[in-house]
Amino acid sequence: MALYDNQHWLLSHIRDSFISTDDTGMCEVVMLGEDLPKQFKTNGYLNCYPGMQDSDDEDLDTLAESYDIPMEMDFGHRQRSNTAQRLEKMDLERKQAAKVKHVKWEPNPGNISSAEQSELFQRKDFRKKEEKTNKRHSLLSEQLEKCPNLPQNAFTDYARFDGNAQVGILARKYRIFMCMLPKEQRAYPQQVVVIATAKVQEFIGLICFKYASEHPDHPLKEDITKYGLYITEDDGEVDWDFPCLDPRETISKFEFTTLGLVEMKPSDRARHNTIIPIEIQNEDDQAVKEKEQEEVAEDLAKMEGHTTAMEAPLYQLYRVYIINKVRAKTEIHLGISGEKIEIDPVLTGKGAGRFWNRQRAVSYHIDNIAWCELIENKGPKTTFTLVYTPHSNTLDAIIGSGGHHSLHQSASFKNHDFEADSATAEEIVRKINHILELRSSTSRKEYLAQRERKAARRKSFHLHR
Amino acid sequence: MTTDNVTGNEQVIFVTGGYDHTIKIWQAHTGVCQRTAQHTESQVNALDITPDKSVIAAAGYQHIRMYDLGSSNPNPVINYEGVSKNVTGLGFQEEGKWMYTGGEDCSARIWDLRSSSFQCQRIFQVSAPVNCVCLHPNQAELIVGDQSGVIHLWDLRSDHNEQLIPEAEASIQDIAIDADGTYMAAVNNKGHCYIWTLTGGVGEEPTRLNPRHKLLAHKRYALRCKFSPDSSLLVTTSADQTARVWKTADFSEVQVLQHEAKRWVWDAAFSADSQYIFTASSDGVARLWNVSTGAVEREYQGHQKAITALAFRDEVLPSR
């Protein structure tokens, strides 16, 4: 590629790659100050496009630098890079550091006189005691005595999730409406800052802690699992259409800034309470188990259905009897696949040559098959019928336009009747119907339409008779 | 939050610091955190409060930072630097003229805090990292304990120094002298506690140490020892998850302070009347114990990680 002949492009590409991929930001700090490729270029050290004259100035300019670092399409919302964040942090730290007085260790700045040293490090006569009363009392003890049974805040365990009291940890601020309070108190939301990694449950604890520490006679329940955080309008009205935030989730997952602390709806409690379902399981263990088994059986049945449907187009050969016009039975091989259905006579020695029950080998394209159903059940034997259109139709259907073709096609359905043991018959019918459902051919649609028309005319439909 | 004890010297100050890079100032009698200060890029190894209760000093990695107690500024106001390693201990001369520190750079230092132009910085170098520093009540002798197990007595006036080794190959973890200057205690990483009685130390008379007692205080690493202000009690804390209180009269065990969380107890402090003990623990909770009952009176929750240092200043009230 021509670009790789361009020393300037290569240099600036390497530089940009370093800057853009180094998350520590060190490369940017080091490299941003001096644009070496540019300097070399202006100094003439670099050969921009060997063999290319300056005639195509415009093109050259666009290619002179390596490609820009691609920007996100949503302008204005480009995520700040780690580097930018780090630089900002460093800047902030620098500003803060400027306010701090720095005292550097200086080993003995200027020799001080021994007189001065002995003055500064004078020995104090510590054994000279002021009159000591026997029983001393401290300010701390007094303060403790003043609030002996301080109403212990039941939620102190959650104090550590307070985002206000943390430095250097991500925190989020929420406006919380305490909906269980009397009306006049809940008009204004509490501002609560929580560390971003706290769970919703822990955040609820923190809200309770905050409130309880400011209102010693609070009405809060000690069991905070009774409370839920709900999405709330800015005026404090809880949006009951939504369930409460999952107590086990991290609070920072939720973007809402206004929330309401409310006693959980029973439905939410049922969803989120992990204790109660366990109890139920103990009591109704048997019922649960039975139900489970039922479900498993159901699932298995469903699965089996899926499997037969999936396996339907696979070729399978059945041995059944075909019943011809004169009600004579001939044993045949019925081969069914997703493509076609074949009927082959089983050539056994005895009776194979008899003319009245001679069966030709035929094959029907699956698109010619219109219908298949069970007809009647005689003892262990079941008869079923297969409705089809004669061969030529496939071609016609493709060539002719569907609309007018169907008009004269109506009468052209024919059928074969078969007899097999009930299980086989059912299996065959199911298999064929699965295939037909998948294909949904013209002849099938035709047949269904015709059947509907006939039903509408309240005529019984006995095609096979 | 509360305005009753924000300014003035007549106040109780309780601060904690630890691995979460913060320093928390508590209302001691309620357990409410009043303020959190930032201690960037380092854990807090040791804390102290100036005698005038205006400033908190925190020892960390390569720095000693000072925080103004009078304002709500979460950032330090003064940063002492130039120490190459961890600063492990610090304290103040009783009038606040100078500060002493010890560090893993094998030295103890005196930092002149007076604003005069005649700065007097002193350094005392030993052969092993310094774990602890303790000022004699005579305000002129610094006791330095190091990792090789040597206790150094550094006479600040004459620069003369003496050494003693209570136990071979056992790192000295902390040293304490009681307010009366009667006893000196040192704990080591074997959990042993050595007690000396002190004589001299006044005027020109040199301080002499007379071995008094050896306590098998803890089964594991001891971390801190402190005498009560009335010199009647000694508390030792340890990695064995307990703090133990001993009677100085006969060095019998008075109380075992153990909590359910069972974590290392890093630091401890007595109230001015020796009735209560604060402890700092790895479970991120500081506790206030009643010495006579052994019960937890208050818990201070808010730190995200282990609390490794605490400082407490109380007031003695005129007797009633």
TrEMBL record, chain A:
It comes from the Eukaryota. Residues 314-437 form the SIN1-type PH domain. Residues 18-40, 47-126 form the Sin1 N-terminal domain. One of its GO terms (cellular component) is plasma membrane. One of its GO terms (molecular function) is phosphatidylinositol-4,5-bisphosphate binding. GO terms for biological process: TORC2 signaling. Pfam families: CRIM, SIN1, SIN1_PH. Residues 137-271 form the CRIM domain. InterPro entries: CRIM_dom, PH-like_dom_sf, Sin1/Avo1, Sin1_N, Sin1_PH_dom. Belongs to the SIN1 family. This is Target of rapamycin complex 2 subunit MAPKAP1 isoform X1. It comes from Cephus cinctus. The gene is LOC107268570.
TrEMBL record, chain B:
It comes from Cephus cinctus (Wheat stem sawfly). This is Target of rapamycin complex subunit lst8. Part of TORC1 complex. Part of the TORC2 complex. Coiled coil: none annotated. WD repeats lie at residues 14-36, 80-121, 215-256, 265-299. Pfam families: WD40. One of its GO terms (biological process) is regulation of actin cytoskeleton organization. The gene is LOC107272107. The keyword Signal does not apply. PROSITE patterns: WD_REPEATS_1, WD_REPEATS_2, WD_REPEATS_REGION. The keyword Magnesium does not apply. It is found in: Cytoplasm; Lysosome membrane. One of its GO terms (cellular component) is TORC2 complex.
